[in-house]
Predict the structure of ABC transporter ATP-binding protein.
Amino acid sequence: MIDQQPEVVLDDSRDPIVVVDGLHIVYRVYGAGGNKGSAASALMRVVRREGRPQMKEVHAVRGVSFIAYRGDAIGIIGTNGSGKSTLLKAIAGLLPPARGGVYTDGQPSLLGVNAALMKDLSGSRNIVLGCLAMGLDMEETKKRYDQIVKFADLKPGFIDYPMNTYSSGMGARLRFAIAAARTHDVMLIDEALATGDAKFKRRSKAKIEELRKDAGAVFLVAHNLDVIEETCNRVIWLDDGRIRMDGDPQSVIKSYTEASGK
Ligand SMILES: Nc1ncnc2c1ncn2[C@@H]1O[C@H](COP(=O)(O)OP(=O)(O)OP(=O)(O)O)[C@@H](O)[C@H]1O
């Protein structure tokens, strides 16, 4: 178990956009014990004056600290369950810290593979919904519509089909295309590129470069280390909720690959 995490040093020459300070995230899972569901066991608890069924805590992020600067594209890597998605959600403000905090200069936007689009509606209706949800007005949405369709580059005709007929890759492309139609102060991308094909990955990479220039910072969680290495200027390796290493993509990925035997 590694308790020592890298020391955070402020780079005065750059403009910080996200500061994560001693962040702890704890999930509480209620009813994790046995006999949780039955009415009889609930009645017995009342009779015995016992409290709630057993509550289990999952300490997913354990004292993580780092500073992201404007123009950073940070890849987050680590084995399954190491806390990558939890960290992104916390930066997006979707999970309350148990301790520590996250400070961002600007609005973070989380683009997950499961981002909330309406699966029963067509791709084109979802583009309009997605743009409005991101705060664009109808006129701006109309202006960006063609560009989004072109970027998503779905099979002909599919833009008018309901999204529940899309493959996971097609859905991810459309979600990414919608999110990329606007500049974001802090853009958080969870595995969206993992399901795309090589051509889409190339275009996404170019788009992320563009977003980095216009926006503040981009965070990218992916299991595909090639995508991370090609797209990011910095990589954070999470191990059991702690930062194991934070640095340039080549060295962090090399150490991670050696340690995990991948
Ligand atoms: N909603 C939840 N309730 C309880 N525990 C959770 C919840 N979401 C995640 N966890 C736990 O938190 C820990 C970190 O999960 P997280 O999804 O952040 O990992 P990850 O690194 O993104 O994993 P993966 O690579 O599999 O996507 C895991 O132990 C997981 O079981």
Strands lie at 16-30, 55-69, 73-77, 99-104, 108-112, 186-190, 217-221, 234-239, 242-247. The longest strand covers residues 16-30.
